[in-house]
Amino acid sequence: PTDATTPATPTTPATATTAGTGDKFIPADAALLAHIDMKGLSGSPLWASNKALMDADPEVKKQMEAFTACNMPFDGFRTVDIGVGAEAKNIAVVAQGAGIGKPENLRCLQEKLNDKQWKLEDVAGGKPRLVFENGEAYGYLVDDDTLAIATKAWDASVTSLMTGKGTSVRDGALKDVLAQADQSKHVWFAGNLPPQLAAMATAQPGMSGMTGLKSVAGSLDLSAGLGLVLAFGMENADRARTSLAEVQKQFASVKPMAGMLGIPATAVDKVTFEAKDAAVTMTASLTMDEINAMSSAMKAGGAGAGAGTTPTGTTPTDGSKIGTTHDKGAKPNPATDM
Questions:
Q1: What residues have CB less than 8 Å from 15, skipping those under 6 apart?
Q2: Taking the model in full, what pTM does it have?
Q3: Which of 146, 152, 192, 254 shows a CA-CA span of 20 to 30 A to 71?
Q4: Residue spans of beta strands (DSSP E) within 85-224
């Protein structure tokens, strides 16, 4: 008998996908869509400056070597699209890259990594599918270079989109918000905020001026460092203009503190705010020189944090024990013993 909780497996899609079209498998009711250009990301100066750290991580190195051995090298990955439903209950991920939709490659990867969180399940008359965490999510080999994964509640929607039926996120609830994100950048995202989440966001320090926040869209440009653009969608144009004035005032009050946090003045001076229609837009950027300067300042601060102090309970060269107010015979000091 068929398990009623197990969704039907779709037939092989009639048409193959091409690079950059992964979001057409994200359902229309997604509240957030994010896109990552893996090719551009891995070729950026920021990635190159941090590659040594990743190469030094044994677990990352193991995974990279496994993907390469199984004919899915990291430099073959092209894009990742992530869709998230309201209250983050549903998730769909579509990855595109050389060989990631071939069953033999995935079987090889599972064997290399000894990953027990998913398995390949044969399907009569169709391609194998991935089963995650006892059926909490499923993965489909759309074509040789495309893998689509969805949580159980979104499974039917994703498989329908694979066969050319249904409505994708491009024509769903995010249609207008997506237009606010610069989709030519390495990373971009757009999302509607439910009232509860918007209230939590505006309650954070420095966000009180964003009352009426309804959506957020943005992008990251990694071509010459780090460029950030954020568009905060407000209730209407009047609310956007009011929020702009409040945000500018708040930023001016905290701007002098940037130096204490190791943020270069040149970077702070590039931060801008403007209101257009019903959105408040913020832009900021860091050159690689500014990023390196911040990294050096953080390292220097960390190295000097313990300088000139003696750890509690240590023993100096004269053999006496110092640094603790609770040694035998010592009287507690209410100013320090808290």
A1: 164
A2: 0.80
A3: 152
A4: 91-97, 118-121, 129-132, 137-143, 146-151, 187-192, 215-221
Look at the block and give the residue holding tokens 């609770």.
326
Arithmetic mean of pLDDT over the chain: 84
- Phi and psi angles of residue 5, each rounded to the nearest 5 degrees, phi first: -85, -10
pLDDT in tens, 252-304: 999 999 888 889 999 999 999 999 999 999 999 999 999 998 988 888 766 55
DSSP for 50-92 reads HHHHHHT-HHHHHHHHHHHHTT--GGGEEEEEEEE-GGG--EE
On whether the CB atoms of residues 272 and 227 are closer than 8 A, the answer is no
CB 152 within 8 A of CB 137: yes
Tokens of 33: 């869509």
DSSP string of 8-45, one letter each residue: PPPPPPSS---TT-GGGGSBTT-SEEEEEEHHHHHTSH
Query: Distances from the Cα of 166 to the Cαs of 163, 244, 255, 286, 307, in angstroms?
Result: 9, 39, 48, 42, 63
Q: Which of 216, 174, 158 is nearest to 24 (CA)?
A: 158
- Tokens for 194, please give them: 């439910």
Q: Which candidate, 209, 210, 206, places its Cα nearest to that of 193? A: 210
Name the CA dihedral angle for 36, 37, 39, 45, rounded to a multiple of 10 degrees: -80
Tokens representing residue 154 in the block: 């979104």
On the 0-12 / 13-18 / 19+ scale of CB atoms within 10 A, 173 is: middle
Residue type, 171: D
